[in-house]
Amino acid sequence: MKTINIGIIGFGTVGSGTAQVLMEQSRRITRRTGVNICLKTVLVRSLRRLPDELADVTVTCEPDDLFADPQIDIIVELIGGIEPARSYILRAIEEGKHVVTANKALLSQCGMEIFKAAAAKNVEIGFEGSVAGGIPLIKTFKEGLAANRIVSIMGILNGTANYILTEMTDHGLPFAEVLKDAQAKGYAEADPTYDIEGIDTAHKLAILVTMAYGIEVKLSDIAVEGISRIDPIDVDLAREFGYRIKLLAISRNHGEHFEVRVHPTLVPESHPLAAISGAFNSVHIHGDMVGDILLYGPGAGKLATGSAVVADIIDISRNILHGAINRVSSLSYLPEYIETRQITPISELTCPYYLRFTTLDQPGVLATIAGILGKYGISIESVIQKASRKREGVPIVVRTYEAREADVVKALAEIDRLPIAAAETVKIRILTQED
Ligand code: HSE
At residue 203, what are phi and psi to the nearest 5 degrees? Predict the structure, then answer.
């Protein structure tokens, strides 16, 4: 029986999870593929003992032990970040080795360089573990939905942010308190910036957009807002209007231009994404032939992400065995057909808005706000005003009909300059039911 040898770079959570999945599922994988997949070498920064069941695996700090070993067929990069991950992957490709990675930051920033290098060497790049952990999302785009024009993608792609928003919603706690607690429990990173500011979600969405539409997207073209400014009062008021606040990755295919954005969003309670709680991920996809698809599962974790990484190893091993490398293009579309298209500027976005004004409690305030909104063509759908004994202002919450982002921004700037304005207005975009 043919043996396919694997080298892993990095033995942290996902690296050790990948090794565990390979070991525990070894017999099943052989029964499914007809090959023996063998973990041969692990490259680490400082030498360490691996668990006893991995006693036959070579542990090294010397990159040549991995890259220059002619017996290694597939190199799995699991260290994350840009460098040295980028150089390691390019070196592996140069040596003619197939690559599996879970590195969304790298693929969203240097993906084209890596995919072009891989195409030139006729090697494969697997990256199922880079988006939504254990959910087989990349394969869904590459194979399951290959007969569709993808119309839209809406996703909860960051478990940490969804966990924080869920705790804020269920227990009425402020953002900072939930974050601190999540860090103490090890759910959130010591530096949570990428997770809470939407950057990690944007990295993942950039990858999905290329897979879905066959277009290249620059991170700088994606409008990104995080959840750090969400106040429990907005969570409560959103609920009064019948919504949950979620950090959503949103993309729509308008043919000549594409919406690609990440921001906190009021999701109607009846929408399936409103019900996704805790650290789970979920993606709603609309294809023109299939209609609506909803995927749900663990977006992170040792064995869940290990499952995705090993699925890529299995795919590549099958292709090696059958002499069918790149049978399915890594990016779903053939590299020569990846196009550049316009990403819709966020200022052109049209959607309903949740606006929370904080104003002095005096006659005529509501009329003044309504007048300025009206001047910019923004129509009010409903209003809630809460009485407050606080001197610093009362909240007036407005749900608008569909309005243009550029007009909303101008109206809010004018309102926030008024003497009656006690704090900056909070603006959250609303997902419409037909989404
Ligand atoms: N930090 C990510 C999250 C997991 O919280 O979802 C890895 O992508």
Answer: -55, -45
